[in-house]
Specification:
about 50% helix; alpha/beta; Rossmann fold; 11 helices; six-stranded parallel sheet; about 250 residues
Length: about 250
Amino acid sequence: MKVHIPTAVLFLHAFPLSKDMFIHQFRALEEEKVPYIAPDYPGFGDEPPYLGELSVEVLTDFVVSRINAFRVKKVIAVGDSMGGYIMFDLWRRYRDIVQAFVFVATRAEADSEEGRKARYNLIGRVKEEGTSFLIDTMLENQTSPATKKDPDKMRQLRCIMERATPEGIVKTLRALADRRDNTDLLPSIDVPTLVVAGKDDERVTPPEVVRRIAEGIKGSEFVELENSAHLPPFENPEAFNRVFLDFLREVL
């Protein structure tokens, strides 16, 4: 007999990381005996690059195929940065499988024209120079002062990012640059929603940008975490897990 899993937590990682950025949440859920799914996107972590062109919609379909493969009926989606973009598309096209949302250090808006140009400039540099400069830039921009002072955390983040393939990075940068605006979706989201910002995220998604998601979703909860910037689940797992597990217990 094939067993269905009624509900699982779905982890959607940031760029250019992998599912390993959620290692502290995996341990917490294993202690709580809560099932979870944590796919790598094509070209990141354990997943080989995608043969065709990528878009947020293609990435969403890829994630849904993993959900279906595990025979999960409903997900509590936790998405950091680009993981949040996939969550918006889940709501747009697959909302029947969504039980709750945890948006982390992400935004509803599409890239500005300046932002799009910056991503396409990165694509050109990666093609010419490789990924080392990009990883250095991401480590600088995505982490808080407290994280930068922790050589073990910085080393782990670098190791995760170094597993990303140049092809995966280039195709994903293009998908991120060309993604649609999702602000129109916010009022329609009617599932329990937690929105988390890193207090020190000054360069990527400042708290005031993340807060707009919570302001647009009726009944959602907004939390700002200290000692974290763009990667709160990894940078400050103790604080993140407290608010995440409290939210999870309410939903379940």
